[in-house]
Amino acid sequence: MHTGEQYHQFMLASQRDRLVRDRFQKLALDLLPSGADVLDFGAGTGIDAKVYAANGHLTFVHEPSAAMCEYMTQYCRDEIACKTIITAASPLTCKVQAVTANFAVLNHFADHTALFEELSLVVQQDGFVLANMLNPYYLGDARYGWWRANIMNLVRRGHYAIASESHIHRFSPHVVTRAAAPYFRLERLIPRGFGWATDLYMFLLFRRT
Q: Which Pfam families does the entry mention (predicted)?
């Protein structure tokens, strides 16, 4: 189990993760209207939230891990003091233009139906949910026995779980899209083509209907 500080330092030290985070942040900021509010769902130590706030977006943060929250209060103390970052004990306490969920936050859910229904009460009309999820087709995972053992589950059901302490689930995009309906429609999916074999993460952009 990582402490908040250990996780924070690991994420900043990993070149691969920094590149993924930069792409995710750029996409989120390009999509956000000027001055729009955002909820960072599963905010971790506040790395993304700090960037959103610096770009003029009032940022609500929801993070269930006490260790992550503890370090976030240090890393984002100035923004929290100025109320450009606001802690949300529940997503339902805010109404925003967008929800972002970076680095496999949604992979900790076994089913997203109830979650998207809740987020439909949070996201304003024509707003969006941007999620970064683990790519179940990533061939770099083929060296692991759990990946090979679940290929048929992925083909048949579009979903499988890995027995581990982290309770991580893998989903094909169509399973998440089905769970998001009727409140959200899939507007964009990244990667395309060969990226399905080479990219560990996939970005899913859902538009509020």
A: Methyltransf_23 (PF13489)
